[in-house]
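User: My collaborator sent over this chain with a note saying "see what the structure looks like." That's all I know about it. Can you take a look?
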Amino acid sequence: MPHRRTRLLVAAELPVVILIAPALLFPTPARLGVLAVVPVLWLAARVVTGHTLPPTPMNTAIQALLIMVGVSLVATPDLQFSLGKVSGVILGALFFWAVARWLTTPQRLHTAATVFLLAGTGLALIGLLGVVDSNKLAALSAITSRLPLRIRGVPGAEDGFNPNAVSGCLVLFLPFQFALVATGVRHALESYSRNPWSSRWPVVAQLALIVVTGGTLLLMQSRGAWVGLLVAGLAFMLWHSRWTRLTAAVGAGAVAMLIVCFGSAIEVDRVVGRSGAGINDTVSGRSEIWTRAIYDIEDEPFTGMGMNTFRRMVPLVGPSRSIREGTDVAHAHNHLLQAALDLGIPGVVAYAAIWIVTAALLITVYRRAAEPIHRVMAGGLGAGLIAHFMFGMTDAIPLGAKVGILYWLTLALCVGLHRLAVADQN
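Assistant: Without extra context I'll predict from the sequence alone. Here is the result:
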């Protein structure tokens, strides 16, 4: 029987990963020494559970991704410049496995869901106090310009947080919040006749979280995040029931009629013109960035150019029609292209595999879960991930970014939900 101290080490895995997270979020070669504790934790887990890593359907894809992170170190021209993103991916994987190992009971799943909701609201509040105004829509900029910029000087975001990055993460949370609120309202109405106060306050609290998260997402003025949520909403309507599918079909028909009546070119120009300042430059600039990214992937298809290296290479290419001199092009504005740039074709295959496995897990829960709340959670998490994926097609939160830890938390919650809702019932 394993020694009591060994079992305590296994139980301490998640707290330990949280404790070493600051050193990995803001890494230096010396700070990476904290990783020495990881083999100790995994050895203890092997003794107690028989598994070094918690068995999850994503392990193969994540391990392949980490291997390509190691391969990218050979290709990177500046290890120090890549270190932050490399360390961020390692932290994300460690955090995923620690949460996945911990999520073993319904009570812990409830706790994790609560933490997930609060994490989204916390990110929204941090965004309000530290985001740089994007000046896209005058009406919203009039509000954001009055907000105090309290959080500054964070390494990598010295002047404030990028509103697109904040928005790209917020879309992970908003559909989940909506799903739980809708369920809570229905249960509150059903139980109101028995006890009017029994379930009112949880619903009120969740509504308050939605107001904070949704309001912040609106003020961030990220058109990519808004489009991502729209696509997620349409996907949910097509999936949920025949009535929602009928509603989506009627809406699509109405849009088609407008295009036929008024002309597609005129309507597109009108929509683009009303979508905020600089959108034409944004579209042309992204097209040029995507073209450059594809050329760079062709140059280094197997190893990638190294994590975060594209950011340094863009200014060296020469003058550009759409990218002004001195502009910091932090990424390829497409998460699949960025993964291929960082880690090569094998790396983007591993990254895509994580998405595919996640989708399969959530679909299985939605179809087979016995508990209705598990289906609700799967729908909310799935819609948030769809929105996040679509946001990443015109923008990106690169692998290893600091806020990317929230993506890994979402993946761990999906794995835990699948284990408790489906796998353990077989």
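A starting point for your reply to your collaborator: The radius of gyration is 23 Å.
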